[in-house]
Amino acid sequence: MHEANGSTDRGPFDTNLIKRYDPKDTDLNSLLENNRKWASAVMKEDPTIFGSIAHKQEPKLLWIGCADSRVPANVILALPPGELFVHRNIANVVINTDLNCLSVLQYAVDVLKVEHIIVCGHYNCGGVAAAYGKEQYGIIDNWLRSIKDVYRLHREAIEILPTDKERIEKLVDLNAIHSAENVCHTTIVQNAWANGQKLTVHAWTYGLEDG
Predict the structure, then answer these.
(1) Residue 133 is assigned to a structural domain of this protein
(2) CA 141 from chain center: how many Å?
(3) Quick one: pLDDT at residue 19?
(4) What stretches of 21-113 show up as alpha helix (H) in DSSP?
(5) Based on the structure, what is the number of domains in the chain?
(6) Which domain covers residue 43, as residue numbers?
(7) pLDDT tens digit string along 70-123?
(8) Cβ–Cβ under 8 Å, residues 174 and 158
(9) Who contacts 147 (Cβ-Cβ below 8 Å, separation ≥6)?
(10) How far apart are CA 175 and CA 169, in angstroms?
């Protein structure tokens, strides 16, 4: 994971608790067992954690990421419950017509008083790859329109790259930056800054190949 001018620290994460879903488990009993083991392990490390977050949340971080199953925010940041407020959609797009995203943003900024907003894209993003191409996929094409606009605005910087892989990765970066800029341009964030609220917006990109 990288950002234009920095990186993130990672806390511990118990990889022994990670198990793949078994498609034969149609009743999802293995998931319930995983939950019990996970809750038990968390309680051993911090017996007060669930009691402290049961009746309120006070996260200082808002994560706006892709809905891709390979980019679970709490897992890749190794953060426990209660630390991260999350909104996810196809290709981590932030646009001024998405009332769902804007509602999350307003609650995070105005009520939770988060101090950092992280817009995180990821390489090998199917949504960005679809926006880069010329095929039609149905209703999702309307959602990907904004990424095509990012491509159009930065066509020269993208097309100068020698391979499609590099061009798509560049578009992933630019899409995250564009969405972060859109966060900054909302009246929600503008008013927070005008009122002196401590708030920083970040654009990150995550690499699936190495975590």
Answers:
(1) yes
(2) 21
(3) 76
(4) 29-45, 49-53, 73-77, 99-106
(5) 1
(6) 2-206
(7) 999 999 999 989 999 999 999 999 999 999 999 999 999 999 999 999 999 999
(8) yes
(9) 91, 93, 127, 128, 131, 132, 171, 175
(10) 10
Annotated active-site positions, please?
66, 68, 70, 122, 125
Which residues does residue 203 pair with via DSSP β-bridges, in sequence order? Answer: 119
CATH number for the domain that contains residue 49: 3.40.1050.10
Q: How is 57-69 classified by DSSP, letter by letter? A: ---SEEEEEE--T
If one counts every other C-beta atom within 10 angstroms of the C-beta of residue 27, the result is: 7
Paired tokens of 46: 């911090």
In a domain, 59, yes or no: yes
Cα(55)–Cα(62) distance, integer angstroms: 19
In a domain, 167, yes or no: yes
Number of Cβ atoms within 10 Å of the Cβ of 97: 7
Residue 204 gets which letter from DSSP? E
For residue 16, what pLDDT band results from cuts at 50, 70 and 90?
low
Element containing residue 203 per DSSP (H, E): strand 200-206
Q: Is the alpha carbon torsion for 199, 203, 208, 209 positive or negative?
A: negative
Tell whether 202 is covered by a domain: yes
Picking from 91, 166, 154, 174, the residue whose alpha carbon sits closest to that of residue 126 is 91
Contact status, residue 31 vs residue 21, Cβ threshold 8 Å: yes
211 token code pair: 């975590």
